[in-house]
């Protein structure tokens, strides 16, 4: 069992590390958002995180996110929910209804479904494009070479403002190379924010320009299987 104070302590330790790492890198800590990744975590832990003051959460499945947050949101109007997992087009409307940020825009078909859901509901979640920096066959995301055209199309054809880029580096490679590449692609394409870094490598990500880090196990403890 994780107690409320365990989560509060771990969260504070993460915020301290984020501040120190930012300062060492000559950055403002306030420019970096700690996203607590709450997938496959218990209800008790979600409530402990809320009690500790955490308000920004990441989820990788729409249905699970609805179960975790739909009711809690009613009690916490200041919640910010971010989708960080792959999105199927048939879930686009549900995602637009729930999330404040969708970080995994990665194809035209999804862009069309999101545009339609936004037009129908008037809700406009902020959007990140997922980049497959390692060009892995099994991983979602736009290949780096295709990114300029894709972003241009998102802006001109769909009227999307692209807030940021997101990546998940290949497990067997040094993450820093991928974070540096994502930062370069953001600069080249006029994109302001970078979602990169997880429990094991968020400090590297901050040194390389991350504006949000997605931390699961280091925040909550091990996930349920
Ligand atoms: C699960 C997940 C995380 C968090 O991973 P940890 O190693 O537990 O910090 C971050 N990003 C994505 C996309 C995830 O699916």
What can you see in these coordinates?
With 225 residues, the protein is α/β, with parallel strands linked by helices. The chain has a single domain (4-220), classed as Alpha-Beta Barrel (TIM Barrel), CATH 3.20.20. Helix content is 44%, strand content 16%. The chain is built from nine helices and eight strands. An eight-stranded parallel beta sheet has the order 7-6-5-4-3-2-1-8. Helix 4 (92-98) links the parallel strand 3 (80-83) and strand 4. Helix 1 (4-24) packs across helix 2 and helix 4 (92-98) crosses helix 5 (108-121). The structure holds pyridoxal-5'-phosphate.
Helices and strands, in order, run as HEHEHEHEHEHEHEHEH
- For the terminal residues, how far apart are their CA atoms? 15 Å
Number of structurally distinct domains = 1
User: Any idea what the radius of gyration is?
Assistant: 17 Å
Shape: globular
- Structural class by secondary-structure content: alpha/beta
> What is the arithmetic mean of pLDDT?
97
Count of DSSP-assigned helices: 9
Low-pLDDT parts are none
Unique ligands: pyridoxal-5'-phosphate
Top-tier CATH class: Alpha Beta
The CATH homologous superfamily corresponds to Alanine racemase
- Main pleated sheet: 8 strands, parallel
- Beta-strand residue fraction: 15-25%
Number of strands: 8
Q: Using the 3D structure, state the CATH architecture.
A: Alpha-Beta Barrel
- Strand order across the largest sheet: 7-6-5-4-3-2-1-8
Q: What is the fold named in CATH at topology level?
A: TIM Barrel
Q: Helical content, roughly?
A: 40-55%
